[in-house]
Amino acid sequence: MISLVPASSYGADPGAVESASETSYRFFIVESPLVWLLLLLSIVTVSLVVQYCLAIRHSRLIPAEVIETAGDFLASSQVTKAMEYLDQQESSLARVLCVGLSEVHNGHDAMDTAMAEMLEQDTTTLLRKIEWLNIIGNVAPMIGLFGTVWGMIDSFNSIVQAGGQPEMVELADGISTALVTTWWGMVVAIPALAAYGFFRNRIDALSAETALTAEEILIAVPSK
To answer: How high is the pLDDT of residue 1?
Structure first.
């Protein structure tokens, strides 16, 4: 097991080792409500990432079953049965196809327009969901900055109260709060923004594939 205690502390005063442990503890958990708020945001970020990983999937938005079943119905000119089947599905592709088929009597241009509108609606809904990651990624550094200002104000107040000759411990306490809250703000913000960018790109890619797949399925449907 790797020890986190410096080698020079072996055989030293137990109080010194305890002080080092306390310092390490304070690096991660400062006595500040802002750190607990940032820890809560980190938990929320992880839960959102897991939720979006399950929701924004190829198999969920563009199921192979929908492609095969809808294609079979349309290949045999069973447009009504295809619409009934698609109406019972929850995938983005099913909704786009169902709306497109509802305009089959108005021609392919009307079908394409209806599908584009439905796809844009679904894409916007997904983008709004992942916007929470963007919000957390932008708010977390601001909370960390607030903690920085708070810690520096506390340090300068210590100088004033001590008549210009404060104890180093008092100064270190305020500076520790300032730096640790900033550190936690970045720890929360960087993964949140990275995940937001990843899911945004995935949504764009899946939306484009949904449009292409829907057009390939409906291109053989004769307009009436």
So the answer is: 34
